[in-house]
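[09:14] KT: can someone run the structure on this one? pasting the chain below
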Amino acid sequence: MQYFITDYIMFVFLAWLPLYLMEAHGFSLAKMGIWAAMPWLTLIIITFSSGYFCDKAIAKGASQYWIRTLCGSAGIIICSLALYIATRTADPMQNVMWLSLSLGSLGLTFNASWACAINLGGEFAGSISGWMNFWGNIGGVIAPTLTAWIATSYGWDAALIATALSGVVGVLAWFLVRPDKAIV
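[09:31] RB: done, structure tokens below
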């Protein structure tokens, strides 16, 4: 469930960020091309950084459960809050900043998710990863259509707020994940 939500949110960015920036904030196609890359660049930086620091903490004896769970849930919490703040920000550059923090923070969640799949699956990590990715892609299939319907019916702010609110389910689901206990 947590990866369903994580991919759902990521696919909203993937499918709709360029159009959102042009329609809601008046970006030209050229300007959008530059600024729409910033959330993805932030995602890359946070993904690499968090993976490095989480692995170091676990190697020094920190609890896998707390590192993975807190990192994964914190990523969704920050993502949802930043996405909500983006809907309340009229300035286009500040909006891009909040969107960058929102998508970038999912790097915390992506790292925790895939590390948990390995921890939970042991020698069957491939099967667990495939199952997790399957449900993530279901979220990814639903996201563009549902977001388009909400944006068309109620506006961009409503679509992004609905996406941010989905994070509540993802955070709750994270506390059910036990990466310190293999399932097989």
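[09:33] KT: thanks! The mean pLDDT is 93.
[09:34] RB: yep, looked fine to me
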